[in-house]
Amino acid sequence: MKAVVKYGYGKGETEIREVPVPQIGDDDILIEVKAAGVCGSDIGFDNGGHEDLLNCPVVLGHEFSGVIAAVGKNVTDWKVGERVVSDNTGKVCGKCYSCETKAYLVCPERLGLGYGMDGGFTKYVKIYGETLRTFPGSLFRIPDCMSFEEAAIMDPVCNSYRAVVQDGGILPGEFVAVYGMGPIGLFAIQAARVAGAAKIIAIGLEGDKSRAELAKKLGATHVIIRDEEDLVAKTMEITGGEGVALAVDAAGPANVLQSAVDIIRAHGKFVKIGYEDMPLGFSLDCVVNKAIHIKGHYGYDWVSWKNSFNLIEAGLIDVKSVITHTMKLSEFRKAFDMVRSHEAVKIILYPED
Asked: Does domain 2-153+319-350 have CATH number 3.90.190.20?
């Protein structure tokens, strides 16, 4: 079967290869992939980044959905033909503090499907029974109302929900700023809207201008392009001088925090989702002086998955509008380039035999 394989740790060391169909054991599940989403992290892997997460050679693709094609003889909870979506957990230790407290995604020994273990940019993916026993929430049945394409990108939906609602803890009527208008930023805007934020400010750079209208469609009340406007002055104008209760970093650069502390109100919150390996290079005294709460965010949990499914089923979160392109797996290089250039927001790849 064809697969997008990251065969080395260097930039561009990714190609289509023929790989064998995974063989499953008595406790395992085999998923036939129907749709897989291209994530910014996939671009990072292709660029030669995130080496600490990679285990090359590996089949990329951590956002995917499909149908159960086969189950081991000991599997009783899952049936062939069920539509499912993975949270991309390949393996966890089951013994550390994180696993004991059900924070499986931050297990120090966790291997993620699509970077630590073979993922969904192919036809079939193996889900290990050992992982399902330890972490039953690593696989979900897809609600009837959802397409495979929508289900494939539940990762950014749930990430955003948890960042805004669970980690951000906003109250109805508060003001929220979201840095970045990629998929996570756009879903964070929607999460803020359904949580009752009175004003939602989408903040981007020149490259995000093409996504401004989509951000407004999904719930942003204002859009600020930092290259063109004074961010602090404009935010204070929008919020009547109060500032925002919550700023969500769905972009990554270190200067996001530097600018965010100037627009966050006293006792406000900053939730960081985006990655950046550059040092901060500025004083955090302003964080102390305004008693700002900074929280690192990683992943999701059962609550964020369940509630996100409910919101989509109720028509309160729009997934379809974020999917701008669909392509064949063999077109992955074109897809990666389109995401890099901001020509596309979210691209779905379809597997090929």
From this structure: no
